């Protein structure tokens, strides 16, 4: 559904208030979410009222999915946040979340192509649940952190392992162009239920490489938002990649890395599947 187009139908029928109609002038989902909880309620109302009768509902094959948030100010990532991922590396569980960043320029949408950089020979995908922030937050408690979340989407923390390990830090190897596939949907918590009870899976060319459940997160989503906000002001549309489970290619025996022509799919229960070919 084209949310703005559908909202225009309701406005023409006189079924939106003036403040609700003002949302229809926003250029993207990040701007829409800047109105806080009201923006989610208006989106829900539009969906409920129009159902399947709207001209703003399009077949999947006619739609190109951009990242749900095409212009986040920040992409914050968490390393070593699944117990099984720590175990496959023979590492102790971290005492606090390990934070790094991906540059927003690495962001692409569902069905967009992951480009293998000539400088790297060891590119590896990672399935991740992503938090999307609803509103600005600083020094949030875990309870307030939950209220500051707009919803959840799927991320793929593509990583150039040779760059990552040679640098002794992660930003360059994680931030190559196209290394942050994200989408295709943003799903609110009322539709997901508990975000810490979701099956998560990554496959390459149909072969499952990662399979786990978000219940195995070391630090849950609310704890992560609270922890990050103690030192970094979170803003509407910021993305948090919450970490990846065991099975990443670099730690498989033998190691498995992406090559041109591969197709990577990340699926998370109740959210959908993020698919990206490799070029």
Topology:
Elements: H1 3-12, H2 18-22, H3 29-33, H4 37-50, E1 75-79, H5 83-88, E2 98-102, E3 107-108, E4 123-124, E5 127-133, H6 142-147, E6 149-156, E7 159-160, H7 161-167, H8 171-174, E8 180-187, H9 189-192, E9 199-204, E10 207-213, H10 221-229, E11 239-241, E12 263-268, E13 272-277
Parallel strand pairs: 1-11, 3-8
Antiparallel strand pairs: 1-2, 4-7, 5-6, 5-11, 6-8, 9-10, 9-12, 12-13
Could you explain how this protein is built, in words?
This protein is of the alpha+beta class and 279 residues long. The chain has ten helices and 13 strands. The strands form three sheets. The protein has a seven-stranded mixed beta sheet with strand order 2-1-11-5-6-8-3. It has a four-stranded antiparallel beta sheet with strand order 10-9-12-13, with no helix packed on it. Helix 1 packs across helix 4. The protein is globular and about 60 Å long.
